[in-house]
Write a structure and sequence with these properties.
This protein is mainly alpha-helical. The protein has one domain. The chain is elongated.
C-alpha cells in the first residue's frame, strides 16, 4: 500500500499545497514533506508566499530574510 493511500487527509492537504513541483511524491502528505525538508534545513512550500515559492529557495535563512527584511 502506498503512503498516499494511508493518509485520510491527502485530498484535503493537496488542495492547500502551493508547491510548484507537480511531480512531488509528497504532495498532500504534509508529515512526509516536513520531514524531508527538515532534514535539509529547509521549510516546505506552504511556509512561503506563492511569489517566494516560485524562487525554489526553501532555506530557513530565506524565510527569515523575507520576514525581517534583513
Amino acid at each position: 500500500m502506498r503512503k498516499l493511500d494511508q493518509c485520510p487527509r491527502v485530498k484535503i492537504n493537496s488542495t492547500y499545497c502551493i508547491c510548484t513541483v507537480q511531480s512531488c511524491n509528497k504532495r498532500g502528505l504534509c508529515c512526509e514533506c516536513l520531514h524531508y525538508h527538515r532534514q535539509r534545513n529547509e521549510l516546505p512550500a506552504c511556509y512561503f508566499t506563492p511569489e517566494e515559492e516560485k524562487t525554489s529557495n526553501r532555506s530557513v535563512e530565506f524565510f527569515i530574510q523575507r520576514r525581517t527584511g534583513k
